[in-house]
């Protein structure tokens, strides 16, 4: 066989780098991607400073991790840097540091000292203006005297890494960069970063990640607080039945772990402040649904991944879905680690579970609408049979699995959730007092194995006789 001639085609640095600035990062995701590197370097403290000074504004991210020597630091500036990633490491593509940084700024400087005896300070700088001028993949090696002022003396004599972003053209947009509006915008970004990191790294901040110390993150000197989507400190939060599902991938197969939660309704929260905080960065309705974790790091916060629509009555349902990097190809994790798509095999498995979780959440939501004493009855139109509002008892649809609710936070044992956990009908009736018309219908459908038929009947009833459906509690 003839040996084919090969011709090396090197990408144009100027045009390629311009394209790489548009990989889908916004500021908060860019900062989180750099923090990923700090976590992978076993840092226990990460400090983020957002500093306003017009066109000389800057953002600095420093950590006390194990740092890098000269060779490792230079390789870190290579697009698609070649190194092995551990199973629990947050990096994967070898693009994060460069792409995240240049998506927001024109000049990124990294200063680092390795955690080794006699290690010296190493510094490298990538300058977009220089690359555009020479059209070549070049970075600068900086001496201590050449370091930008905000990166000097941050590490002292300790190991760690400092990432400095200057020329924040994608952040300030340079529309009156010295004005009050620009300063207000940058400070709003700092608050957004604080809120986002508290959500994305909440397991690390709370010390819930195995085999590592709790992580401390500060933004402009203020500690970032962990935001637990599942409100496990609330006494009325309910941890439902957990599931483990095997999913195939190009690297073999992996386990996806599902932990569903139904949060208390508003009048059962410990305080209105706790209720407001639980609403999350995007508000109650947009925070319902799946919380997808890759190696304990949150990637997606809310949304139903096209398995159902966002619904006011399902806003109390939040489901933890966890996987590890061996399933990255199956979930389609992007470079910015800001979005995923559920594998088709997994979608089929969890579609019926989503319906069940939605019904349990709907029942918890409706509890807030039930007054402590019944209001005066209004006269009903002829032919309408009135029935008292009732708490629903939903049948189980999940597969058998582990129930670790005792380890996942406080759980309530209301009649609504008792059936989901496998409590018998007699227990539910004694707990509820007397069974309502709605409960009786649902229990009968469950006993006869006709839950889907009941669902179709209810859908027709809501259309043909909505007042009767309302009186029955639907």
Mean pLDDT comes to 81
Q: Which architecture of the largest domain per CATH?
A: 2-Layer Sandwich
The helix fraction, in percent, is: 25-40%
Structural class: alpha+beta
Q: Order of strands in the sheet with the most strands?
A: 5-4-3-6-2-1-7-8
Spatial shape: elongated
Total number of helices: 18
Could you list the spans in which at least 5 consecutive residues all have pLDDT below 50? 370-434
**What Rg is obtained from the alpha carbons, in whole angstroms?**
27 Å
Strand content: 15-25%
Largest sheet: 8 strands, mixed
CATH topology of the largest domain: Heat Shock Protein 90
Tell me the number of strands: 14
Q: What is the CATH superfamily label of the largest domain?
A: Histidine kinase-like ATPase, C-terminal domain
Number of domains: 3
CATH class of the largest domain: Alpha Beta
Task: Give your account of this protein's structure.
The protein has helices at residues 13-20, 27-40, 70-76, 96-102, 128-134, 169-172, 180-200, 202-205, 272-278, 284-287, 328-331, 344-366, 405-408, 415-418, 425-432, 437-448, 451-464, 466-471; strands at 45-51, 58-63, 107-113, 122-127, 140-141, 160-166, 216-219, 222-223, 238-239, 243-249, 252-262, 289-294, 297-301, 317-323. A hairpin with a 6-residue loop joins strand 1 (45-51) and strand 2. The N and C termini lie far apart (74 Å). It has 474 residues and is an alpha+beta fold. It is elongated and about 80 Å long. Mean pLDDT is 81; it is low at 370-434. Helix 1 runs antiparallel to helix 5 (128-134) and helix 2 runs antiparallel to helix 4. The chain is built from 18 helices and 14 strands. Strands 5-4-3-6-2-1-7-8 form an 8-stranded mixed β-sheet. Strands 9, 10, 11, 12, 13 and 14 form a 6-stranded mixed β-sheet that branches.
């Amino acid at each position: 066989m003839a040996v084919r001639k090969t011709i090396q085609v090197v990408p144009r640095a100027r045009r390629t780098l311009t394209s790489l600035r548009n990989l889908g990062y916004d500021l908060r995701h860019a900062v989180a991607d750099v923090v990923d590197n700090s976590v992978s370097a076993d840092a226990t403290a990460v400090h983020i400073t957002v500093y306003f000074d017009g066109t000389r504004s800057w953002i600095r991210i420093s950590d006390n991790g194990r740092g890098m020597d000269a060779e490792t630091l230079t390789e870190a500036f290579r697009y698609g840097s070649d190194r092995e990633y551990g199973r629990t490491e947050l990096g994967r593509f070898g693009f994060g540091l460069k792409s995240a940084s240049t998506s927001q700024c024109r000049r990124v400087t990294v200063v680092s000292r390795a955690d080794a005896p006699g290690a010296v300070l190493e510094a490298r700088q990538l300058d977009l203006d220089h690359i555009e001028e020479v059209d070549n993949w070049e970075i600068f090696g900086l001496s201590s005297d050449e370091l930008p002022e905000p990166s000097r003396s941050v590490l002292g004599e300790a190991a760690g890494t400092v990432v400095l972003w200057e020329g924040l053209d994608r952040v300030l947009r340079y529309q009156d960069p010295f004005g009050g509006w620009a300063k207000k915008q940058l400070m709003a970004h700092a608050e957004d970063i604080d809120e986002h990191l508290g959500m994305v790294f909440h397991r690390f901040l709370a010390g819930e990640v195995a085999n590592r110390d709790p992580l401390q993150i500060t933004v402009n000197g203020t500690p970032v607080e962990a935001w637990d989507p599942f409100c496990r400190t609330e006494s009325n939060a309910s941890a439902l039945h957990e599931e483990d599902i095997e999913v195939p991938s190009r690297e073999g197969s992996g386990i996806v772990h599902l932990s569903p939660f139904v949060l208390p309704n508003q009048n059962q929260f410990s305080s209105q402040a706790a209720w407001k905080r639980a609403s999350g960065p995007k508000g109650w309705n947009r925070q319902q649904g799946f919380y997808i974790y890759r190696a304990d790091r949150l990637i997606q916060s809310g949304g139903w991944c096209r398995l159902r629509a966002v619904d006011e009555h399902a806003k109390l349902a939040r489901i933890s879905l966890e996987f590890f990097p061996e399933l990255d190809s199956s979930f389609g994790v992007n470079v910015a680690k800001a979005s995923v798509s559920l594998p088709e095999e997994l979608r089929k498995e969890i579609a019926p579970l989503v319906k069940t979780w939605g019904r349990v959440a709907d029942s918890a939501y409706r509890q807030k609408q039930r007054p402590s004493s019944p209001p005066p009855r209004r006269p009903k139109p002829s032919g309408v049979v009135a029935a008292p509002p009732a708490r629903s008892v939903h049948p189980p649809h999940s597969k058998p699995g582990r129930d670790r609710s005792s380890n996942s936070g406080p759980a309530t044992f209301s009649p609504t959730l008792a059936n989901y956990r496998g409590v018998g009908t007699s227990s539910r009736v004694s707990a509820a007092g007397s069974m309502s018309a709605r409960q009786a219908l649902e229990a009968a459908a469950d006993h006869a194995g006709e839950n889907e038929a009941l669902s179709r009947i209810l859908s027709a009833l809501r259309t043909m006789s909505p007042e009767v459906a309302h009186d029955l509690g639907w």
